[in-house]
Amino acid sequence: MRVLSILAVLAAGPVAAQTCGGSWSDFKDGLLAEAVARGVAQADAARFLAGARQDAEVLRADRAQGVFQRDFIDFSRRLISQNRIDNARAQSSRQDAIFDRIEAELGIPREVMLAFWAFETDFGAVQGNFNTRDALVTLSHDCRRPELFRPQVFAAMELAARGDMDPDRTTGAWAGEIGMVQMLPGDIIENGRDGDGDGRVSLKTSAPDALLSGASVLASLGWAPNQPWLQEVVVPAEMDWSLSGTETQLTTDQWAAMGVTARAGELPDLPASLILPMGRKGPAFLTYPNFDVYFEWNQSFVYVLTAAYFATRIGGGQIYDAGTPDAGLSGDQIRQLQEKLQARGYDVGGADGILGAKTRAAVQAEQQRLGLPADAWPTPALLAQL
Question: The Peptidoglycan binding-like domain covers which part of the protein (predicted)?
Fold first, then answer.
């Protein structure tokens, strides 16, 4: 889970400028000073930071995210199996009471939470064994994304001060998330909820606590109760492909007028974007406003689309029509493409070999410029033309 939180507890008092790098000792001293300036008791902050060590494995994990270089069909087939669907449905029955509560109070369908639970920790079985404090301090010291992780260090201090985290023993994912649905400390402070009624929020050991807390995060990010998030559609052989992509929203009546039809059921009366993860010849989906909330949970385009699709499968939806998409690019070729796009002035979020939303938008713009079908799916022919 990758949610940036705005914490009231962090807003009080003067805030030092974001810093990173330098000696480990000096960096920890800077964290201590900023924590005190934010209102954390010096003894609490010092106790939290006393044993913090730099974790090289965390940095290796941060740099090794090649799985997101896979295309949608490959990625989704690797993550979704009939066994995982069966397990999700079994967990739906096992945790029926908390899912009923989530649906009644927050309007979030159980299949949405089941998909996240499955992907994040395989229903709690694989929660990560990285020391949470060390992971957060290491990633704050690293200069790649300190603006994301530094605030979470202070949130973790708050959790430790109130007895909800043991800095020396609490473990989780390499990026500092904790529990069955992998929540960052700031999100735990804002949205941690007691789902089993024992008076505590235990995200590592209590499925009801974890699921209700995760659903609370989605609700706080704007999930519209009892609305769809994703629907598979059939697209015509020809249309204005430049209208596809997350940046364009039209009414479902407008999409229908262009020949877009639901593969099953009816199109709801909602604004929608047409997503073609592997171009006009591959799978096709309409995404609705709730789909945007997925990007607040995770920034990876292929992960978000797969999680949203998996939720529809858990709910009884059919397997998508893979179509016959044109050959795509390897990770190294995507990196070459990104370098060429950056040279043309596009912001693609860095040349990382991952076909994310920014790279797709840049590809679509270049396809339009070159008079190609602007479906945001990069091919070897496009790379050669650039």
Answer: 330-386
Q: Cβ(301)–Cβ(361) under 8 Å?
A: no
pTM to 2 decimals?
A: 0.91
Tell me what pLDDT residue 294 has: 94
Residue 301 lies in a domain: yes
What's the pLDDT tens digit per position in 364-382? 999 999 999 999 999 999 9
CA of residue 385 relative to chain centroid, distance: 33
Q: Are 166 and 186 in contact (CB under 8 A)?
A: no
Residues in the chain: 386
Mean pLDDT computed over every residue of the chain: 93
pLDDT at position 15: 42
- 281 vs 286: CA distance, rounded Å: 15
| Position 380, amino acid | P
Residues 248 and 307 in one domain: yes
Task: Write the burial class of residue 178 (CB in 10 Å: 0-12 exposed, 13-18 middle, 19+ buried).
Answer: buried
> What domain range is 269 assigned to?
230-314
237-289 pLDDT, tens per residue? 999 999 999 999 999 999 999 999 999 999 999 999 999 999 999 999 999 99
CA distance 357 to 371: 21
Structure tokens at 159: 């959790």
From CA 214, how far away is CA 98, in angstroms rounded?
12
CA angle, 66 as apex, 350 and 141 as ends, to 5°? 60
Task: Say if residue 304 is in the same domain as residue 373.
Answer: no
Could you tell me if residue 350 is left (phi over 0), alpha (psi between -120 and 50 degrees) or otherwise beta? left
Maximum CA extent, the chain: 66
Q: Same domain, yes or no, for 297 and 241?
A: yes
- Please count the structural domains in the chain: 2
User: pLDDT band for position 68 (50/70/90)?
Assistant: confident
